[in-house]
Amino acid sequence: MNEIIESVKNLSIGFNSQKGKQISILRNVSTNIKKGETVGIVGESGSGKSTLALAMMGYIKQGLFPLKGECLFKSEDLLKMSSRQLEKIRGRKIAMIPQNAGQALTPNLKIGYQIDEALKLHTDLNKTERDKKISELLNKVRLPSPETMAFRYPHELSGGQQQRVAVAMALAGKPDLLLLDEPTTGLDVTTQAHVLELLRFIAKDTGTSMIYVSHDLGAIAQVSDRIVVMYAGEIVLEGPARKILKEPIHPYTYGLLKSIPKLSLAGLPASMPGSQPQPGSINEGCSFYDRCNLANDNCKKNSPDLEHIKELDTNVRCFNYKELINQNNNLQTSITKKSNNSEANEVLKLKDVSISYAKQKFFDQLLNKISDQNPTVKDINIDIKKGETIALVGESGSGKSTILKSIAGLLKTKDGQIKFEKDRILSSDLKKRNPNDLRAIQLIFQNPDESLNPNHTVEQILSQPLKLYFNLSGDELKKNIIDLLKKVRLGEFYMSRYPRQLSGGEKQRVAVARAFAAKPDIILCDEVTSALDVSVQAAVLNLLQQLKEDLGTTYVFVSHDLAVVRAISDRVAVLYQGRLCEIGPSQNVYKFPSHPYTEVLLGAVLEPDPDIKPKLVAEDIVEEKPPEKGCSFQGRCPRKIGDICNSEVPPWQIGENGNAIRCHINIDELASLQQ
Amino acid sequence: MLLLILKRIGLGLITLFIVSLITFVGVEVLPGDACTTYLEREAYGAALDACIKRLGLDVPAYERYLDWASNVIRGDFGYSLSGEMPINEVLGPRVKNSLVLASVSILIGIPLAIVLGIITALWRDKLPDIMISTITIFSMTIPEFISATLLILIVAIWLGWLPGIVIIPSDATFYELISNIILPVVAISMIMTAHMARMVRSSVIQVMASDYVQMAILKGVPYWKMVFRHVLPNALLPAINVVALTIAWLLGGVVVTEVVFNYPGLGRLVIESISNRDLPVVQALAIILASIYVGINLIADLMTLMLNPRLKSLQIRK
């Protein structure tokens, strides 16, 4: 068990800046991987975790080069090997499972060929043996009908299936070490839980060592024996998984764990100030100095070494770690938010809304025939009260963003009405809405890189809504822009900056400011935090909550992240295949999930705690479109009772907690079934 | 799939119909008609009347269009005015010459462009790339009438190795033919190859940076195997459409080059018939060139569809 298979020694990797300066993005990293062990490498974007993982295969991205140190695999330095020698090791001794299997599988080659290629390179099997092995591997990663699967092209598979193929391909060469680079990021919650479960099983079954790289402490917690925490290209904390997650003794890890929203906690997570420093910007002192609340003058001048603490079996890079040892475990805290007045008026009402992406055919249009009997989104009824945050959750394809777009007027509804302020119907055609209605509903997008014009300064970006809706100019315009920036906690000097000069969190703040510039009644938030790092996400969530409490805005919040929704929402609507499953006050839906789908979804959420295991109740089948009749969840429901589920749309039932669900099973019976 | 092909062919035919209408109307609205052009100063009185009668210009325009169109469908383009012979006989040798020039250029230019593109991409920013890229950018930027003229000056006049002007007798031997067309082929290939090589280069570079190529490397696939199995099939797909456009451009008349070398191809015929105001020939050429463009683009689209498994199964599913 204690045999070391790969060891990284004092590794630094960097690039030459345009000014000819050497800038390192990985600084003096040393770690060992033991046989049969799973090591989680965790860090936010830009922490160097992927660079480290790839270097462990002897692969260095173009433009980067090793500055010093070595990567020893069975005491041979991978970084000094020729590409011939590396070809013998890659795939056979060390194999990789990539982040996005959809892009990592060559599009013009069939699944079977790509696995066969690995087998041909790394085993001595003949053609028939290899064919047998391919179905064996596909079977092992639990893909349906392995015989026909081999003849499919990558794009014909769902995201979860593609990831399984990548796992099969990695296992083909029977490697000693598996490298997983964010293997479940981008997958749906339930799929992610299933793939992780598979990986855990494989690790146990084959005794392979694994290096699991991720930004997601929830996923890391489920698989790792040991965790390495990276910050700004350095290892800041390293030790047994349970210790790191339960009693982190580095202030960054501590702050990171606190900033993750948790399912069991209502209220917002605490945020960490600032963001990770850019490579090359740290000259002296501790790289975490700016964001640390334990920092003193010593931290500013000297950078701490990685110190081994024998009794905890942990390495830590901090002068003041002792202040965190034996501190009471208060990771489970959150900021309570003011709940809104439930007597408030309705501000937006969705009545029987259906949306279809199918284009009406020319002849059907002439005959006035409704062609799509099975629209993407159907029968949505939601009343939204002034000042509340209502969240729409669901996996990809659940229609949550589609509903948001139709409220914004970007997508026409097929049926039903969207009513705004006391029964005034909003036209489903954006061009027919009056300017005041347009102003009243604003949208914040997922990715601020794409929603902010790269050629405009922050001042220009913010002045557009002010000019358009309020005709401001001159000093008054400038005063308003400065006010807006102050509201989102950005200084006046940001006015002249371009989006590329801002960090991810700052960009999203500008996007938030732009939405608030219109003084809207309703803000539609489309996955606004999913492109952000965890510590930045907490700050943006807190900002949104603060603005809402100050200004009384209503949010419609769309997210796939159930923990984030738990943190910010007052009410939550759970969607499956464009149909509502359950709707109710957040604390009740999360505490007493009634609908089988809500149960499945919440069960699959990964918590950053090795003691909380996900519950996998349903298969992770991917359904391409909603069933034509009956309950939308019939295909995957673990509690299906029979034909009635296939033939009749379930009625609404309201439970005593205020949750409304659509299910044929009695709501009280569902509660007792879950015990 | 079959439905899709039929649909595309249908669209192509509609395009051709519109082209024929536009050229017909265009010729119609020009001041004067075929007879005034043909008779020039004698275009009055009995001679004009006789001519109008002979060419059938006294019937309404739509009848003449229908008449002309139905003849075209049967493959008869009518009479050339200046040559006073059937247009088919005028076109025949020209089409053949253009085909010879185009196919030789294609056979040399396209493989060369692909090879150069791949070399420059794989050795990106190294010596082979820097050298080849400099040359391609250079030959892309020089206009063809300059490069063609320079070629004549150096190879034909100073060195005297090859004829400067193309004279192809109808009974030319293979050797005569080749020695005559070398210079035009070189002049055309220079520009064509340069454009395509740049395209292939950027396409290969893009694919080399993709996740699946990184994955193939990390899987331990040897370099050249990775290039041939994982990179090239994906990188050359987008090149098909560019190749098609280039072929259409070659067949449709490399006008400038043909004029400089006095090459009797379609491109020069376009210039000649326009300056002679030989309207039936202009009409015929417009239809033929449009058909070439439509046809070759159709083939290119279908090829992309066949070779790209992603598009193929998308279409089948629909």
Detailed description of the structure:
The complex is a heterodimer of chains A (675) and B (318). Chain A has 25 helices and 24 strands. In chain A, strand 9 and strand 10 form a beta hairpin. In chain A, strands 6-7-8-3-9-10-12-11 form an eight-stranded mixed beta sheet, with helices on both faces. Among the domains of chain A are: 36-58 and 82-93 and 175-323, Rossmann fold; 337-388 and 396-437 and 446-519, P-loop containing nucleotide triphosphate hydrolases (Rossmann fold). The radius of gyration of chain A is 26 Å and the shape is globular. With 675 residues, chain A is α/β, with parallel strands linked by helices. In chain A, helix 17 (458-470) packs parallel to helix 19 (504-517). By secondary structure, chain B is an all-alpha fold. In chain B, helix 5 (87-122) packs antiparallel against helix 11 (239-251) and helix 9 packs antiparallel against helix 10 (223-236). Chain B is globular and about 85 Å long. The termini of chain B are close together. Chains A and B meet through helix 2 and helix 4 of A and helix 9, helix 10 and helix 15 of B.
What is the architecture of one domain in chain A at the second tier of CATH? 3-Layer(aba) Sandwich
CATH class descriptor name of one domain in chain A:
Alpha Beta
Helix vs. strand class of chain B: mainly alpha
CATH topology of one domain in chain A: Rossmann fold
If helices are DSSP runs of H or I spanning 4 or more residues, what is the number of helices of chain B? 15
According to CATH, the homologous superfamily of the largest domain in chain B is MetI-like
Strands of the widest sheet of chain A, in order across it, are: 6-7-8-3-9-10-12-11
Q: What portion of the residues of chain B fall into strands of 2 or more residues?
A: under 5%
Number of structural domains of chain B: 2
What is the assembly state of the chains in this entry?
Answer: heterodimer
Total DSSP E strands of chain B: 0
Number of helices of chain A: 25
